[in-house]
Structure formats: structure tokens, C-alpha cells
Inverse folding.
């Protein structure tokens, strides 16, 4: 089974790091990952429109052209079953946006908690 994942973050290092972690986590449980990345709200929304529904999207909340909430709203509108996680250093600041997200993940990324949260996000 292949899980289709989108990571939205404007920092290349974060995209690479999260992508490698996701591939490792899923490989450990005998699943494959098709991980796509986007560096902006506009790019993420284009990918949501262009590709079949993602199983999960991990969204940095501070992007150069808007908020991760903008991505979450677009994803919810187009594909309500896609699981959404906000990735932020300040999760309490986004509490009012909780209806758009299935999970909040805290920065900086700690591998064990990221793995637990990611697997919870995918419901595996």
C-alpha cells in the first residue's frame, strides 16, 4: 500500500528531513510513501488540485505567501477525508483553527514524537 503525503514548508532542510523521516517510518511498517513537497500556499493548493487526494498533509503554519490555515481550508474543501496536521512552534496560537486540523505537531521536530504523531495522523 502506498500512502500519498504532501509536506508544505518554506525551508528546504525541513522538507528533506520530514520526507526522509516519513519514508523511514512507513518502510518500518512495510508501507510505501509517495511524498510530494510544496514551499508556499499557492504551490500547495495547486498540488492539492492537481493530484489525487493525499492521505495526509503536514503544513507549516508560517509560509511566505500566507498561513498554513489557507492550505488547510483548501484541502478540507476539496478532499474532506485528507488528514491534516499543523506544524508549528506555537501550537497554542492556532487553537482557534483546530477545526481545520486533525493534529497539531510541535517544532522543533523531535523524531520520536514526530513518528508517533505522524502514525496517528495516518491512523495506522
Amino acid at each position: 500500500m502506498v500512502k500519498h503525503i504532501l509536506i508544505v514548508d518554506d525551508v528546504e532542510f525541513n522538507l528533506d528531513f520530514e520526507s526522509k523521516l516519513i519514508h523511514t517510518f512507513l518502510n518500518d511498517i512495510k508501507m510505501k510513501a509517495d511524498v510530494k513537497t510544496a514551499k508556499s500556499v499557492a504551490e500547495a493548493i495547486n498540488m492539492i488540485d492537481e493530484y489525487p487526494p493525499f492521505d495526509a498533509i503536514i503544513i507549516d503554519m508560517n509560509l511566505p505567501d500566507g498561513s498554513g490555515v489557507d492550505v488547510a481550508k483548501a484541502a478540507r474543501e476539496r478532499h474532506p477525508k485528507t488528514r491534516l496536521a499543523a506544524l508549528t512552534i506555537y501550537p497554542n496560537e492556532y487553537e482557534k483553527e483546530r477545526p481545520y486540523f486533525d493534529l497539531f505537531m510541535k517544532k522543533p521536530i523531535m523524531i520520536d514524537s514526530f513518528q508517533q504523531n505522524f502514525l496517528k495522523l495516518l491512523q495506522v
